Amino acid sequence: AAPPTAGPGADGLTDPAGRVEVPAELTDVLAEGGAPPALALPSARALGGEAAEVLRTDPWRLLTVPGVRPEQADGFARALLGPDHDPQDPRRGPALAQWLLLRAALSGHTVLDHDTLVRQLAGLGVADAEAALESAVAEGDVVDFHEPDPEAEEAVEPSGSPDDSDSPDDEPDHAPPPGIRLYGLERWAVAEESLAEGLHRLVSTFAAERRDTASPPPGGAEAWETAARATGSPSAAELVRLVGGHALVTHTGGEAARAEIAELLVAAASLGLRAWAVTATDDARDRFAALLPEPADPPSHEEPARPGIATLAGLLAGTEGPGREAEGALALDLLAVTDAALLDTEAGAAAVESLADGSRLVLSGDPHGLGPVGAGRVLGDVLAAGACPHVASRTPDPGPLGELVSGVGAGELLQVEAPDRELVIVPVRDAGEAVHRAVQLVGDSVPRAVGVPASDTRVVTVGHGGGAGTGALNAALKARLNPGPGAFGGFDPDDRVVHTPSPGRAIHARVVGADADGLRLESAGRTFVVPRELVGTTVRHGWAVTAHQALGRRWPAVVVVLPGDAGEALDRPWVYTAFGRGLRHVSVVHGVGPELPRAVAERPGAERHTRLRSLLSAQAAEAD
């Protein structure tokens, strides 16, 4: 269904998508500070109905609006405050600390350590970064933590004093600091703690139910062992056995390993459990559904319940899945998260909170690719903490593409044999040639040589900008595949697009039309409207996408574009993700020379800074 469209408010400015009214007072204060009118709507969303008063009281709160940078907020404050403006205004430092933590979250971090945050604040001109952090914590905008330092040779109990942390000026022979001081925003702090507590609740209540012989859970050990022996692979059998006796299990593997989760669901359903799997995208949901057995025709009353499959977003929103029981928990006994490597902290917390006591949870994913778009790394932290039994699949991905991707995951760029043109390398000299060859591959070579039409092919590149970014590639691909005047904000019917309604969320869609309400898109059989006010900022052409936009999706054919200036941006998870998007064929438009094997061998990807691992480890220590 299309998003609701609101009529104009009393001030004549209303957001049709979210029914957010933009008061005239807000537009006035933004104009007074020299901010562009386009910031009115996101400011109202970020700061609420009192946005105008908030900005007059503290102009640097403009930094909470997505996309606003410190220099822009400084200019706004300078214009708004006039002669009262002071570069060392005590309001500036705390606002910058909050902005730095928001920026870190966009890179996947739920926390930053003390020294990093102090250094970054100093780099933004904050003379007393320590005081700024103390003020941010006191105001409740930032949360601070003391964590044990795993590298410290001696365990020292935290003293609780904010002056006891280490600093770049400490002498190397000083006593170890009282652990590591971390800072985060309440949003992610609450989510990580809720997630850790929820996982502990599942494990403890499951164990308690198994000790209750008066009402044992479905399926005894013997039944689970019988189900395990009926599976088709050793990895699937191991998984079924472990899930039979544990509330929380992790499972890792490539695309082929998804079949093991399907076998687990079938086994659990045969034992009377309400078993469901969730995926990150509708595309992954449809591919996983194909792994489940077809229902009997005609249906048999003796046939066990069929496992369910949904997207995680649909399950949590209630638009997909089994629904909820009277007390609010999901009406299921076993939940398998099949794209758990893409599970961020907030989504993980929401999923675990939705599970009833005694439920089973399987976190299954491929840890070699790019991580979640949101902050956190749930699967990685649970694995690192050793919080539960783990199954590492021994089922390899098949064919030359499977061999290629498996090698990348191990840090090696293999030369693979591709007798049926599953893999083609196309060398190029510059970005212009890269765009030309990519368009040629999508529009001519791949359909002719591989039999995959252009509509089933996607181009994956490193970023949006540059001579061979998504902008340049999509302009060339549109001219070749769907030329038109761009009658509605640069879009025409049948254009492939990516809609980003919120940071990190990518909906792949097709333009089906436009009217007074906005741009009409179709995705996964559903038609919806993007209001015209939001088209320019939330819709991009989508024949070419970034690897992050491609997460959770695969296409019959993929063209990976690596222009010469992309070498330093590449790392192993990026290459693994990009090369793994093709089901039948991958073409690599290769302009980075030796940077590609170097990225695979030497750049394992940046670590995310989170608290979940330490929270889970602390739980385990208390249990011992």
UniProtKB/TrEMBL annotation:
Keywords: ATP-binding, Helicase, Hydrolase, Nucleotide-binding. Residues 163-172 have a biased composition (Acidic residues). Signal peptide: none annotated. The keyword Acyltransferase does not apply. Residues 26-111 form the ATP-dependent RecD2 DNA helicase-like helix-hairpin-helix domain. SUPFAM superfamilies: P-loop containing nucleoside triphosphate hydrolases. GO terms for molecular function: helicase activity. Residues 148-180 are annotated as: Disordered. This is DNA helicase RecD.
